[in-house]
Every structure is written in structure tokens, then in C-alpha cells.
Amino acid sequence: MRWISFLLILLLILNPLALTPARAQSANNISFIRDAEIENYLHALAAPVYRAAGLDPSAITIVVVDSSVVNAFVAGGMNEFFYTGLLQLTDTPEQLIGVMAHETGHIAGGHLIRGREEMENASAEAILGMILGAAAGLAAGSSDAAQGIISGSQQVAERSFLSFSRTVEASADAAGMSFLDRSGISTKGMLEFFKKMEGQEYLPSDRQSEYVRTHPLTQDRIDAVQLHYDNSPPALKDAKLPAIYTEMHERMKAKLLGYLQPDTALLRYTDKDPRASARYARAIALYRTGQPAHAITLTDDLIKQEPNNPFFYELKAQIQFESGNIKDAVSGYKKANDLLQDSSLLRQSYGHALIESKDPANLDLAIKQLLLANQFEPREPLTWRLLASAWGLKGEATKDPEYEGMVTYALAEEAVAKGNDKSAGQLARRAMKGLKKGSPYWLRAQDIKLSTAPESDEESGKHKKSDD
Length: 468
Prior knowledge:
This protein is mainly alpha-helical. It has 24 helices and five strands. It has two domains: 2-243, no CATH class; 264-467, Alpha Horseshoe (Serine Threonine Protein Phosphatase 5, Tetratricopeptide repeat), CATH 1.25.40. Strand 4 and strand 5 form a beta hairpin.
């Protein structure tokens, strides 16, 4: 699991590589959690609902936001954002899929939150940055303020920006319930989640959960879901998801607690608890509290119990990586990738470990893994950063000057993924000078140059001769 600080990613382009989990401590920082296992579970859980809505599951991006706030929203095309506070509040996969069905109702109904057109193709970091910046501008009544990150009273503007009307919320409920019905999933989970939120509307606004503030939850909406559930066929009313989803849900919650609140996890999941989810949480919490040897012992026990679970190998490799045992981390990440071959995050981690092995013989394999990661997720900024590092090292080893252009091209792609058009255009122009004209990377750099905001006439003239 990795935390990605929005402010750090936005401001730093040429920093040394680091994947150590580091939660942003400032309330003004927005952090994302990238975790192969959690994202795998969320996509698997939601896939039937997406298909019922006529959507391609592979086209939906699910983003996990590191925040104790209870909230979820859709934005910028088919992107669903779920806060860790909401994920941890749900007791069952049925409750979570009820929320997902509601949010999918917004997508299917065309209720998407849109800022700039670029939001449609931006990365999660860029999308949330646009939303926060737009809300900040609304609060201040100035476009200049849109460059800042919203805080304090500006959060009211953010809330307003993310909110839908009660009518639209009811429409998303109705669509979500129809998607659940078509998927053979009971609406009981949606009803249970709404009842968790029941009564919030009568509290003072500063005591309401963010979910209720941005999703006006009237009694009429709750009554409508209750009526739908009451009138469901008995087989559908009592339908439960396969038991594997309950286990995956428990592991997600255990994992989040282990990473986000390790001391609490050690108290909640005692060493007397034999469940795999409990031992998983303890292993993560021990690692997070500076006890890597004990954590690896617990992880080894989990691997013995489930030798084909890629995420246990991933956890062990991550602990080894961050303890400086790069050679064993490389082996662990290879095993995880062999078991789950379509995960961009696992391939990214494998590529990073290969780079950090400092073995020139591993560079080609590292580049291969990162390029494969890009095929699965082309908008992931960190993969492009790692590719820039790998290509840079390859250039040093081979003395081939074209690698300098490839490094700059990778940084241009990273800037594109972050929504930083100005930097992307500048880097693409520089990359074209170092790449062979007409080569695939040169053509892609040219596309970036042409699609980013144009420079002034004077600046454009300076580049015209060398670029074209």
C-alpha cells in the first residue's frame, strides 16, 4: 500500500524516488491510497453493477482517498472516489455495493461533476486538484484562488461543488436499485447504509457527516429504498453475495486499520484471534510500528496458509524493500506478479525494486515491467517517474544519448498525468530534440506538445525551427 500526497506530487518532478508510505499530516493535503488488493476487491465487487448499468467495468477508475471523512463522489468521466472513512464504516460488502450502485447511478444518469474538459482524461490527482481548486475559486470569488488548496471556510464551497440536488440523489438511488436488481443483489445493503446515516440531516451542519452534506439524505429517499426492498421477490430480498466477498471486505478493513491506525489495530486484532484478516492486520500494524521481523514472521504464516495469495507476497516484499533487503524484495514482487499478472501496481513495485537493486543487468527487466504497468494504467504518474529513472540509468550504462530524450519524454508524460499542461509542453519540446524524429516516443512527444496549452507567439517562434 502506498500513500500519494497530492501537493508533493504536484510540486516535485525531479525528486529522488521513494515509495515509503507517508500519510500527509496537514489537513490541507489530499492523499490517495494506491493498493493493488483493495482496488482489486473494489473492482470485483462493483463489476456486476457496472455491467447492469451498461458500463464497461474496465473503463471505471476507482480512487481511494485517505481521509476519515465519510464520503464518496463521481467526477471527470467515469471516476468514482471513495474515502477510507466510508470504506471503514461499511460493515458488509452488501452495504458498500449499495453505495457503489448509487454512485454508478450518477454516472449512468449523466450527473457527473465536471470542471475543465481536461478532467475527462486526467489522473485522479489532477481531477481532485481541479475540484478543490475550482471550489477554492468559488469561495474566494477569484480565479486566482483556484490555484490554491481549499481549507477552512472554503470547505463549504467544496461541499457545494460536490453536492447534487435531492431530486438527483433520489434519481441515483432509483437507478442504483435497478442495477442491484439486475445483478441479483439485494438492496438491503443500500438500505442498511442509509439507515446508518439516518438522522444526520437533523443535526447541526458542523456535526453532519460529509456524505450527508454532499448527498442530501431525506426521509423520503430512505422510505423509497425501504419500499423497494419490502416489495422485492423473496429470493432477491434475502440474496447474499458469495462468502469470498465478505472475507475480502474484512481484509480490506483490517488492512486499512493496520496501515492508518496501527496501534488501534494491535488492540483490536489480538494475537489470540485466529482469523486470517486479524493476523493480516497485525502483520501490517507491526510493520508500521517498526517491528519488521515480527511482521515478516506473521506474513510467512499467512503465505503458508494461502500460498497462492499475491498480496501476502507483496506485503512481505514491501517490508523487505523498506528494510533495505532489496534482493529478497525483488523475489517477492516477482512471485506476486507471477500470481496476478494484470496489476499495474504490482508491476510498478516490481520495476521499482529492480531499479533499486543497483544491478545494471536488471534494468531491461525493470523497464519491461514499467512499460507493462503503463499498458494497464497509462495515467499513473509514478510509473512515468520510475521509467525516467530507469531510462536515465540505462543511458549512463550505454552512453546512448537518445536515453536523455526518453527521460525527458517520460517526465512530460508524468506532467500530463498530473494535469500540468505547461510543464508537459515544455518537457515534450525538450524531449523531441533528443529523440529520433519519427520514432514512436518522438511522435507521442509531438502529440503532447500539440495538445498542451500553446505558448505565446514569441516563445512559439523560438521553438518552431528546432521542433519542426
